[in-house]
């Protein structure tokens, strides 16, 4: 039996049903790595205390989720350039005795361009202005997309994100009128639960050819993607990103990469509705 020696975990609040413990504990066992990964709900007023505890216990690696992705930055010894550009961190790891922050959502988002034959967008529209949108905007600049638009229901928030990321803000009511050839949903609209079967984008906005990219991964086929496919657009669900950002975390912590296809199958099986 492999006895865990190294401690990993997820901090956020509230945590709900995160897939990270499943993915990372599977990765440890698949790669025969002596680690164990836990979920640690940490309310915002206890974040600084938690970071001190991580240092004291020499916790080897941590995933960070809502609402700590931005608040954790000043508590770290160093932040990688892409994460600093996004202004958000989703991974903590050690470089010697320095506790560092990285944002693997950025590379995770770009992963499908690496292994599928997707064209690079010329006019990309980001829907939503939260933490995931910041990672996506950073990624779109990384691949030199010439025209980047952002739209969301809170105009003031959208304006401020647009300014920070050199994007053009678009009123929510006009989001389908920009002739985008890539529309990216970073809102929870379409996700299983109260938002299921709601699309963040009017179907008549899918003009010409393009790519609809949904960060939602449960369900895999959202109304947004269904309507895009019906209009002849290519579609990309959020599961590849979820797998890629998780495996990038595991690689930062261990130097190892579990097989992505097996990781995807594991998460698909976990997400499948129980009969
Ligand atoms: P967040 O920081 O809470 O941002 C959510 C954004 O969606 C905000 O701009 C919010 O607007 C907007 N929004 C929420 N409800 C809405 C509604 N009913 N109508 C219109 N807009 C609405 O969350 P996040 O971290 O960015 O995550 C967003 C989504 O991306 C989640 O579904 C998450 O699961 C998914 N995600 C997926 C991956 C992946 O690997 N596939 C990675 C990261 C995130 P307000 O600002 O007005 O509230």
Question: What's the topology here?
Answer:
Blueprint: E1 6-12, H1 20-30, E2 35-41, H2 47-57, E3 61-64, E4 78-79, H3 81-86, E5 91-95, E6 98-102, H4 104-115, E7 123-127, H5 131-142, E8 147-151, H6 155-164, E9 168-169, E10 182-185, E11 211-214, H7 223-230, E12 234-236, H8 239-254, H9 260-271
Parallel strand pairs: 1-2, 1-3, 4-6, 7-8, 7-10, 8-9, 10-11, 11-12
Antiparallel strand pairs: 3-5, 5-6
Helix pairs in contact: 1-8, 4-5, 4-8, 8-9
The protein binds NADP nicotinamide-adenine-dinucleotide phosphate.
What does this structure look like?
The protein is of the alpha/beta class. It is 36% helix and 19% strand. The protein is built from 9 helices and 12 strands. The strands form 2 sheets. It has a 6-stranded mixed sheet with strand order 2-1-3-5-6-4. Helix 1 links the parallel strand 1 (6-12) and strand 2 (35-41). The two termini are 33 Å apart. The model has no long low-confidence stretch (mean pLDDT 96). Bound molecules: NADP nicotinamide-adenine-dinucleotide phosphate (NAP). NADP nicotinamide-adenine-dinucleotide phosphate (NAP) binds at residues 66, 105, 108, 128-133, 152-154, 157, 186-189, 191, 215-217, 238, 241-242, 245.
């Amino acid at each position: 039996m492999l006895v865990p020696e190294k401690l990993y975990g997820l901090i956020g609040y509230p945590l709900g049903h995160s897939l990270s413990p499943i993915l990372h504990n599977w990765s440890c066992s698949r790669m025969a790595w002596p680690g164990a990964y836990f979920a640690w709900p940490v309310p915002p007023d206890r974040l600084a205390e938690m970071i001190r505890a991580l240092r004291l216990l020499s916790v080897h690696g941590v995933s960070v989720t809502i609402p700590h992705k931005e608040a954790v930055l000043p508590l770290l010894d160093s932040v990688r350039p892409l994460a600093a550009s996004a202004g958000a961190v989703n991974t903590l790891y050690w470089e010697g005795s320095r506790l560092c922050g990285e944002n693997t959502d950025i590379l995770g988002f770009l992963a499908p361009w690496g292994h599928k034959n997707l064209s690079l967008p010329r006019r990309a529209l980001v829907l939503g202005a939260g933490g995931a949108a910041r990672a996506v905007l950073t990624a779109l600049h990384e691949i030199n997309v010439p025209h980047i638009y952002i739209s969301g229901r809170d105009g003031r928030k959208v304006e401020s994100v647009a300014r920070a990321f050199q994007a053009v803000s678009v009123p929510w009511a006009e989001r389908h009128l920009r002739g985008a050839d890539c529309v990216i949903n970073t809102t929870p609209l379409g996700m299983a639960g109260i938002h299921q079967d709601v699309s963040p984008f009017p179907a008549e906005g899918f003009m010409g050819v393009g790519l609809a990219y949904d960060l939602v991964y449960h369900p895999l086929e959202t109304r947004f993607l269904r309507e895009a496919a019906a209009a002849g657009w290519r579609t990309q669900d959020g599961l590849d990103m979820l797998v890629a950002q998780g495996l990038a975390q595991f690689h930062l912590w261990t130097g190892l990469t579990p097989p992505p296809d097996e990781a995807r199958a594991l998460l698909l099986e976990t997400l499948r509705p129980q009969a």
